[in-house]
From TrEMBL:
Residues 308-320 have a biased composition (Basic and acidic residues). InterPro entries: Bmt2/SAMTOR, SAM-dependent_MTases_sf. Keywords: Methyltransferase, S-adenosyl-L-methionine, Transferase. HAMAP family: BMT2 (MF_03044). Residues 297-320 are annotated as: Disordered. The keyword S-adenosyl-L-methionine applies. It comes from the Eukaryota. S-adenosyl-L-methionine binds at residues 127, 145. GO terms for biological process: methylation; negative regulation of TORC1 signaling. GO terms for molecular function: methyltransferase activity. Belongs to the BMT2 family. S-adenosyl-L-methionine-binding protein that acts as an inhibitor of mTORC1 signaling. Acts as a sensor of S-adenosyl-L-methionine to signal methionine sufficiency to mTORC1. Probably also acts as a S-adenosyl-L-methionine-dependent methyltransferase. This is S-adenosylmethionine sensor upstream of mTORC1.
Length: 333
């Protein structure tokens, strides 16, 4: 069972997310976010809690219980390697599929492809916290966060970062911050439990649009989102994400339900027409170009939950925490 410390740490994480969403409903989401980014005390508490949960509970639990197949870190690494590396990278399979879609749109379609060259996988880890991917030698990692928990993580607000045509990321070493991120530079970008942090659907969309700009054509965006419900329970929501991201220019090439999370890989298509065609064929009445999360629809006011600092945590509260931030290790050890 989850320990009291786990529940307290995850409760802190949940309360930060919930307050942001509630504040964004009552006032301008951009103002709310900027105030949050300037709140050093809250950011440090959040970073410390996330770091401890990930390294002392989640990662360790996966290692001890031999559940590495349920590790979000291992899933990202494996997905990247199978897509970019080896004798038959999946990148070329999906390239062929895109060509067939384009030929279905226009029978005269022809395109001369170039090899996609990779020495090390250039990976941007957004909301990294403690830079877990630096341990893998076949990755060249740029780890960023608004509250870095390790010196190897650079400060950066991904919603507000400058994106330009430069050769490599530009850093301020004195401030340990990112100045500029390059267009069409990264092979892979990771959003692990990131989009739920942002208080508004528009901000989540902007994050994905920024990722699209920074990815090389045929690069991949890996999104991991909390999901403790049974497989298929959030199918409509995930399909709407697919529809929304297809409108930006992404094609979903993989979706997998792990314990407490849903993991997805989106490919930056060479041709925008591929995503447009998918949208035209598969659009259903409920679909809209918006990135909602379950908490947008079903959470009560933060004030209702925080009206008494001395209130004892109930079993219902524990379930609420489990559902609201299910990406952390709530399984029995």
């Amino acid at each position: 069972m989850a320990s009291q410390e786990q529940l307290e740490l995850s409760g802190l994480i949940k309360s930060v997310h919930q307050r942001l969403r509630e504040s964004a409903k009552q006032s301008d989401a951009e103002t709310v976010w900027q105030e949050h980014v300037r709140d050093a005390k809250v950011l440090k508490s959040y970073a410390d809690a996330m770091h401890k949960l990930a390294t002392c509970y989640w990662d360790r639990t996966m290692e001890v219980s031999c559940k590495r197949s349920n590790s979000r870190i291992e899933w990202v690494v494996s997905s990247c390697r199978s897509y970019f590396l080896g004798q038959t990278p999946l990148l070329y399979l999906f390239r062929e599929k895109e060509d067939k879609v384009m030929q279905a749109i226009d029978s005269s379609f022809r395109y001369e492809h170039k090899p996609y060259l990779v020495e090390k996988i250039q990976l941007l880890d957004v909301g990294s916290c403690y830079n877990p991917f630096e341990a893998f030698e076949d990755f060249d990692v740029t780890a960023i966060d608004i509250a870095p928990a390790q010196p190897s993580v650079w400060y950066c607000d991904f919603l507000d970062v400058s994106v330009r045509n430069i050769d490599r990321p530009s850093f301020s070493h004195e401030e340990r911050a990112v100045d500029v991120l390059p267009k069409e530079y990264f092979d892979a970008i990771v959003f692990s439990l990131l989009l739920e942090y942002l208080p508004s659907p528009d901000q989540r969309m902007r994050c994905c649009q920024n990722a699209y700009q920074m990815l090389r054509p045929e690069g991949i965006l890996l999104i991991i989102t909390p999901d403790s419900r049974h497989q298929g329970a959030n199918a409509k929501l995930m399909k709407n994400w697919r529809y929304t991201l297809a409108g930006i220019g992404f094609t979903r090439i993989k979706i997998e339900k792990l314990e407490h999370v849903t993991c997805m890989v989106f490919r930056r298509s060479l041709f925008p027409e591929v995503g447009q065609r998918w949208c035209a064929i598969n659009r259903e009445a409920y679909m809209m170009p918006v990135l909602n999360i379950p908490q947008d629809f079903n959470e009560s006011s933060a004030n209702d939950n925080d009206d008494s600092g001395d209130r004892q945590r109930t079993e219902a509260d524990d379930v609420d925490i489990r559902d609201a931030f299910a990406g952390l290790p709530f399984e029995d050890s």
